[in-house]
Structure to design on (785 residues):
């Protein structure tokens, strides 16, 4: 287990969620390194012979590094490929291109049995706590299953002890482990899912919308639990969510996805204070603040239309069809650039990586 | 933002010649008259008989909607907010037992036959549902579905005039190429576009009241921003008042004039949007606001969860339904369910300890101490004190601990061990 890089937390600062964004050591080897990840789903034509007539480019060239103990938030709207990214990293849906290296070991192309041993170190928590737990197994069996599969416990007594510890770690009453998932509320079920993911003491957790199915009062408890676990166990998270305020709360770094690619990535505070890509700006501006005076005084950027189909993304910059800058600010010559040149993810003077030819930091909040 | 006093266009100024406001419609222009509520719900009570006992989904909801006003009903899932509005519209299944009174401009709606209700639905009170994927009929063209609503309430309207009005409505809600798109089927539209169509249908007959049940919940946030704009347009164009049902406190902050907070089937706090956000008096409201991750708060500030989960509404025990989760709980809370008491001008809260909440000055950290556990079980164990939360003895319950009430999770190692 990789140790947290900063220690000596003042107990009085217990209200801090976790160490500041800059506290993660990013000089060493990343625990997870994704390069040019692609996941294309073939579109089959009609007729007897199902020929492939195209592809839904759900993930289309994605680069991402996660360092030990780091929380990287991955945000985007539905259909942008963020969940597919998470699944492709775990090989639950094999990638169709690119490379995923976990601690230097290539994961793309591994078969199921080769993957199995690696799953000890990478685990996933799914979005829907009602669908991701087997309703016919008592909670004990659900949490114990990974330990049994990987043969990590010697005897029944040790297994009981470990399950008990896990269930306590996630804030549930260990006396309830003989019950079935149906007897638990949504928030509690999500805690069971987290306990199951922690059973093998992984180094990286992929959290796929872990709180979006929960009511806000319950969501807060699960968020705090995730923060605590990360601090105590030194876990790295890939935190996938559609809600920027949730991602901002927990992440060290935030990556914004649009149509299968990351279009901006930066340290949390940098991204939220100086978003440079027009999409990030619009996304932030669209989130209503729960503060009537501020909310009503705000200037809002409203982008038009919906996300285009990933089967047929626009030429050049993928965001240009909805871009407020493309529509209202740029002249024809610059628009030509947007239409023909696909912007790569690089630092364009904003101090962090973004994929917009004409990126300019703007204070939105 | 606020819609009363807004530039409500007179009903006829936008509509085509054939469409006038219609007979049942009294003035819904900005002139704000508190004495004549548009919609008055009194002591509304809804029970669903089930094998396990009667599910008391709505227990005594009272509110009145004034002309031009936006009333937000907020609450978590299962709090009865949707059932309340379905009861108002007369859309509950026959097995539901509904009592109380729902008056639309003085006319009692409860107990009306479906036929009579059809005259009110869409015309007096119209509704926008949550899921735009299922609230349009997949086998009819968009244009037809709008025309149908128009002609239902105005038999003299020609097909041609209705068609023209449909195009106009689609333009109003921001659908490009409206003249062509009326011939599309719902599946050809994206979610956001469908919700625009649903809004167009809801505003087609210039209703007095629009009830919007989670109108943006199924949509992405950038599309939500678009739809909220369209809703504002709809309100201005029709001059209608709106009941907005949502769980999103951000949406409420932007659009509502008054807020009704529901918990376990009852309104627990009603007040102006400023009262609710800046001076909440019911611990639940305070807790709800404290549990939100906010874009405008310093990052890294700890969220404040409300422990436990909402009670089951089957065979509820006496006493305040929030008491098992409430940090300010005292023995008196279990005696009887508190009435809503006046805590400020036009601001009521159902709590016997509102002074303590007031003393916190809107700081949820001061009232809610935190525990890492979530040990209570749903169902039968709900009411028994499944988790005698350790913080009950520890929290200060007053303003003394402003923001620094350190609970068991203060140090990283204790959160696993601080449970009973």
């Amino acid at each position: 287990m990789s140790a947290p890089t900063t220690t000596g937390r003042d107990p009085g600062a217990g209200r801090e969620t976790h160490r500041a964004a800059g506290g993660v050591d990013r000089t060493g080897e990343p625990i997870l390194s994704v390069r040019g990840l692609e996941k294309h789903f073939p579109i089959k034509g009609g007729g007897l012979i199902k020929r492939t007539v195209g592809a839904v480019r759900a993930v289309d060239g994605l680069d991402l590094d996660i360092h030990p103990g780091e929380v990287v938030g991955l945000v985007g709207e539905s259909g942008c490929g963020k969940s597919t990214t998470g699944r492709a990293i775990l090989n639950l849906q094999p990638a169709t291109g690119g490379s995923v290296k976990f601690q230097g070991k290539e994961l793309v192309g591994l078969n199921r049995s080769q993957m199995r041993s690696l799953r000890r170190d990478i685990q996933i928590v799914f979005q829907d706590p009602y669908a991701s737990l087997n309703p016919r197994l008592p909670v004990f069996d659900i949490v114990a299953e990974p330990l049994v599969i990987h043969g990590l416990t010697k005897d029944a007594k040790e297994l009981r002890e470990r399950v008990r510890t896990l269930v306590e770690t996630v804030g549930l009453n260990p006396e309830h482990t003989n019950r079935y998932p149906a007897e638990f509320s949504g928030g509690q079920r999500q805690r069971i899912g987290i306990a199951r993911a922690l059973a093998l003491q992984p180094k990286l957790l992929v959290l796929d919308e872990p709180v979006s199915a929960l009511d806000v009062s319950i969501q807060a408890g699960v968020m705090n639990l995730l923060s605590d676990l990360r601090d105590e166990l030194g876990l790295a998270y890939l935190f996938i969510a559609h809600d920027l305020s949730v991602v901002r709360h927990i992440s060290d770094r935030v990556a914004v996805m649009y149509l299968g690619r990351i279009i901006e990535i930066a340290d949390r505070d940098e991204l939220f204070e100086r978003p440079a890509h027009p999409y990030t700006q619009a996304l932030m501006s669209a989130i209503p603040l729960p503060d009537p005076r501020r909310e009503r005084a705000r200037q809002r950027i409203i982008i038009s239309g919906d996300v285009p189909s990933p089967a047929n993304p626009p030429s050049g910059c993928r965001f240009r069809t909805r871009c407020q800058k493309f529509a209202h600010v740029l002249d024809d010559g610059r628009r030509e650039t947007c239409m023909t040149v696909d912007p790569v993810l690089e630092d364009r003077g904003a101090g962090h990586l973004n994929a917009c030819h004409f990126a300019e930091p703007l204070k939105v909040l | 933002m606020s819609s009363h006093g807004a530039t409500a266009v007179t009903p006829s100024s936008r509509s085509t010649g054939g469409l006038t406001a219609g007979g049942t419609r009294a003035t819904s222009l900005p002139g704000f008259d508190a004495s004549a509520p548009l919609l008055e719900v009194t002591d509304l009570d809804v029970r669903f008989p089930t094998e396990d006992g009667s599910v008391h989904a709505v227990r005594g909801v009272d509110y009145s909607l004034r002309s031009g006003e936006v009333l937000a009903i907020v609450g978590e899932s299962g709090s009865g907010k949707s059932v309340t509005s379905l009861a108002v519209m007369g859309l509950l299944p026959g097995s539901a037992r509904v009592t109380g009174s729902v008056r639309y401009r003085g006319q009692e709606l409860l107990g009306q036959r479906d036929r009579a209700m059809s005259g009110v639905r869409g015309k007096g009170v119209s509704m926008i549902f949550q899921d735009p994927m299922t609230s349009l009929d997949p086998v009819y063209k968009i244009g037809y579905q709008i025309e149908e609503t128009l002609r239902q309430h105005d038999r003299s309207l020609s097909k041609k005039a209705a068609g023209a009005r449909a195009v106009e409505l689609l333009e109003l809600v921001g659908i490009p190429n409206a003249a062509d798109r009326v011939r599309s089927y719902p599946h050809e539209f994206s979610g956001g576009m469908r919700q625009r169509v649903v809004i167009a249908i809801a505003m087609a007959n210039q209703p007095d009241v629009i009830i919007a049940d989670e109108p943006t919940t199924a949509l992405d946030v950038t599309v939500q921003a678009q739809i909220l704009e369209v809703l504002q347009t709809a309100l201005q164009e029709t001059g209608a008042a709106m009941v907005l049902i949502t769980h999103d406190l951000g949406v409420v902050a932007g659009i509502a004039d008054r807020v009704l907070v529901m918990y376990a089937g009852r309104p627990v706090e009603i007040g102006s949007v400023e009262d609710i956000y800046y001076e909440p008096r019911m611990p639940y409201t305070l807790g709800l606001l404290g549990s939100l991750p906010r874009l405008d708060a310093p990052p890294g500030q700890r969220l404040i969860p409300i422990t436990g989960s909402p009670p089951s509404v089957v065979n509820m025990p006496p006493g305040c339904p929030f008491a098992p989760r409430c940090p300010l709980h005292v023995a008196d809370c279990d005696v009887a369910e508190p009435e809503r008491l006046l805590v400020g001008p036009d601001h009521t809260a159902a709590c016997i300890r509102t002074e303590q909440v007031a003393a916190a000055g809107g700081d949820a950290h001061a009232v809610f101490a935190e525990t890492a556990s979530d040990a209570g079980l749903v169902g039968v164990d709900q009411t028994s004190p499944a988790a005698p939360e350790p913080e009950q003895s520890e929290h200060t319950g007053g303003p003394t601990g402003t923001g620094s009430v350190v609970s068991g999770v203060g140090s990283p190692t204790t959160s696993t061990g601080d449970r009973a």
